[in-house]
Amino acid sequence: SSSQKLKFLSSGPLHILDVPGAGFALWAETAGANPIDACYSGSSSLDGDAVLSFMRALCAVSQEELTPPPHQGRPSVHMLQRAIECAHHNLGRIRLVWSRLWSIVSQHLVSAACHHDADVAMYAVDALRQLTAKLLAPRRRAELTNFARQGEALRPFAAVLRHCDNPVVKDLAVSCVSQAVAAHSAELGGPGWRSAIEALAVAAGDPAPEVVVRALGAMQLVFNALYAEKNGHTCLTECAAAALEALGNDAQSEELALGAVDLFQILAGRLSYMQVSLSLQQQQQQGGGKMGGDG
User: Fold this and answer.
1) Which runs of E-coded beta strand occur in the chain?
2) By the number of CB atoms within 10 A of the CB, which of 33, 209, 215, 259 ranks highest?
3) CA-CA distance, 82 to 79, in Å (whole number)?
4) How far apart, in whole angstroms, are the C-alpha atoms of residue 171 and residue 274?
5) For residue 270, which of 219, 223, 217 has the smallest C-alpha distance?
6) How far lies 65's CA from each of 59, 75, 112, 164, 191, in Å?
7) From the CB of residue 20, how many other CB atoms can be counted at a distance below 10 Å?
């Protein structure tokens, strides 16, 4: 770990030589720093199979760092950070390679987000947020055309909310979904919207009131943003199911239940709008037919 390396360096050269692996630690902190960085930044030049193997190895070593033996102190996020850096360096990959790479790194980040150490978990969720923001950016989305139709970008947050036990971490995950929707609503597409709604539905059924409050606020944002689009009705079923999840949460208070009812008012307004639009279309068609018959 970094603290051990600093301890080696502060103890003098003779002590360093007496500790197994300390020579490498000293080299990594000095002359080897740039070559080591080049290994990660240069991963973008590896072929598809090689970069996948490299990422699997990084995640495996990171998992060992995150679960150290009791006598070795707190977990380290050093290799987790390196895995995240490698993912950023390889965002330019073709869709086929990136989808497989994303599967590896996102699964590891979800696992880290469920870590018992809150600092590690929140670090992992924030890393997911940053990667998702880049994946949903218009320029990046054009490069990764039809990357799982953007649905995979937000799906890890649903997994975090489903498996994590820490309400603070889950609250952060909901905030990340809300931020993604607010910043990239035009880039989400149908599967992206469904992934966002899926994550919020899980959060709405959470036993922690603070997570439910955050989820209800985010769902209002999602519903309003979604139905500002012409094709928003395509996710109406998912939205209704998410609102029902919030309403049926036995752990929430009456105030939160009323917040869930407000969501149905948004959906009812959408249904009313659809009905009016359909009636106007039918009237226009009938009027056009009569004019054609009169002619």
Assistant:
1) none
2) 215
3) 5
4) 34
5) 223
6) 10, 6, 11, 19, 35
7) 6
Rounded to the nearest 10 degrees, how much is the dihedral formed by the CA atoms of 169, 175, 176, 181? 160
How do the pLDDT tens digits run along the chain, 295 residues long?
445 544 444 444 444 455 555 665 665 666 656 677 777 788 888 898 999 999 999 999 999 999 988 877 789 999 999 999 999 999 888 888 988 999 999 999 999 999 999 999 999 999 999 999 888 876 554 555 545 546 788 999 999 999 999 999 999 999 999 999 888 877 777 788 889 999 999 999 999 999 999 999 999 888 888 776 555 567 888 888 888 888 888 766 777 788 888 888 878 877 766 554 545 555 565 665 555 555 4
CA-CA-CA-CA dihedral for 27, 32, 36, 42, to nearest 10: -170
CA 267 from centroid of its chain's CA atoms:
26
Q: DSSP class of residue 252?
A: S
Structure tokens at 181: 């929707």
Is residue 133 within 8 A of residue 176, CB to CB? The reply is: no
Q: What's the predicted TM-score (pTM) here? A: 0.78
Q: What angle do CA 274, 194, 224 make, to 5 degrees?
A: 50
DSSP 229: S
DSSP, res 234? G
3-state SS, one letter per residue, for 119-164? HHHHHHHHHHHHHHHHHHCHHHHHHCCCCHHHHHHHHHHHHHHHHC
Nearest 10 degrees: Cα torsion 272, 214, 122, 164: -80
Length of the chain in residues, anyone?
295
User: Residue holding tokens 């009323």?
Assistant: 258
